[in-house]
Amino acid sequence: MTSVDRLEPCGLYIHIPFCLRKCSYCDFVSYRISSYDTARYCSAVVREMQLVLGSSRRISVADDGLLSQASIEGLRPTTVYIGGGTPTVLPVEQLGALITSIWRVVVPHQDYSECDIEFTVEANPETLSEEYLSELRRLGVNRLSIGLQSTMDKYLSMLGRPHSFDEFVKSYRLAVQSGFHNISVDLIYGLPGQTLEEWREDLSRVVELTPSHISCYALTLSDGTALSEEVRSFRLPEPQEDLVADMYHDTVSVLTESGYCHYEISNFAAPGMECKHNMNYWLNGYYVGLGVAAHAHLRGVRYANTAEVERYINRVEAGIFMPEHVEAVSPARELSDSFILGLRTARGVNLKELAERFGEAPVAELAGRLERFVDIGLVESSEGQIRLTEQGMILSNEIMAEVL
Ligand code: SF4
C-alpha cells in the first residue's frame, strides 16, 4: 500500500465532450449531445477513473517503458476540473452520479465537505436552472466557470452561442443565490467587427457583476470552423492585430484597476481566487485526464486519450486503459516545459528553483536565450526571477517559439 508521505499531488481533469450544438469558432473536442448515449459515456469515465486512480489501480496495457504501473502509483488529486464541451448539458442525475464517484475516489476516507479541494465545473448559461445549480452545490462543487464570451447579443449570435446576455445574467445571479462564491466568467475579444469601445463595455458589464475570476482570450480563427470560413470568404472582417493588442492592454488596465490580479496571460482573479487547477498546469505539475481527448502529465510521461467517443467507451468497457498518444518526457523537456508554462504567469520562472531541479548549466543556457528580449522590453529579469512584461505577454507565442 502506498504510504501517505509518498503521495504526490496532481490535478484531475474530466472531459465531457457534449454540447447543445457547435459554436461557430469552436475547435474543441465537442459533439452534439443528441447523437450520444451520455449515460454510457459517464459510466466509462468512472471505469477509467477506477483503473487510473482507484484503490486497485491497474494499467492493463503492456509496460512499454513509457507508461507503466509506476506512472500512476501514489498520485493524490488536489483539484478537480470537469470541462468540455458543456458538462452541464448532461442531465443532472448523470453529472451528479459522476461527481459522487469522483469524490469517492479523490477522498475515500473523508467527508468531501471537510476537505479543501477546489472542484470546478464548466457551464454554459442556457443549461443552468435553480435546481441544477443547487444540486451542484449540494454535491460539493465549489467553483463554476461560465462561458459568456460577449455581453452583446449580435456577437453571441455571430459566435453561434445558444444564449443571450440577459440569460447569462440570470444564470449568474442564480449561481450566486445557490451559494457559489467562486465563479469564473470567460470572455473573448478580437471578434470580427468588434470595436475597442464595445470590448470596454463587455469588460465593464462583467466587472459590475463582481465575479471572483475573469478569463479573457483573444479569438483564434481555427481552420475548419464556420467562423474562420466566414472571415476567409470576406463575409466578415478579419480582426486587426493592432486593435487586438489595444484590446489586450485595455483588458489589463480595466481589470487591474477594478481590483483583479493579472496572474496569467489571459487570467485575472480577485485576491486569493486564482484557479488552483490551472496554476498546477502552469507550474508544470502532474495531472490525470479522464474521458475522450483528455491529456495527462505523470512522472516522465505525457499521454492523451482518443478523441473518438465510441472507441474510448469500447476500450474502457473492455477494461483496457490504453491512451492513444504516449510520449516520454526527458528532463530537458521538463525544463523547457517549466520555462514555457511558467512564463505565462505573472510570477514568471525562478531560476534558482529550476537550477535545483535541473542543474545550473541548462537553466542558464535557456535564460540566456531570453536576454535579447530583455533588451527590447519584452522580458524582465531581476533577482533570479524572469517574467514577461505586459508587451511580452501579447507577443508570448513569438517569444516562446524563438526561445525553444
Ligand atoms: S460551448 Fe464551448 S465546447 Fe461547446 S461548442 Fe461552444 S465553444 Fe465548443
Would you mind describing this structure in some detail?
This protein has 404 residues and is α/β, with parallel strands linked by helices. The chain folds into two domains: 4-280, pyruvate-formate lyase- activating enzyme (Alpha-Beta Horseshoe), CATH 3.80.30; 331-404, Arc Repressor Mutant, subunit A (Orthogonal Bundle). The protein contains 17 helices and 17 strands. The strands form four sheets. Strands 9-10-8-7-6-5-4-1-11 form a nine-stranded mixed beta sheet, with helices on both faces. The protein has a three-stranded antiparallel beta sheet with strand order 12-13-14, with no helix packed on it. Strands 15-17-16 form a three-stranded antiparallel beta sheet. Strand 12 (295-298) and strand 13 form a beta hairpin. Helix 1 (38-53) crosses helix 11 (309-317), helix 7 (196-208) runs parallel beside helix 9 (241-257) and helix 13 (351-358) packs across helix 14. The chain starts with 7 loop residues before the first strand and ends with a helix. The relative contact order is 0.12. The model is unreliable at 1-5 (pLDDT under 50). Iron/sulfur cluster binds next to loops.
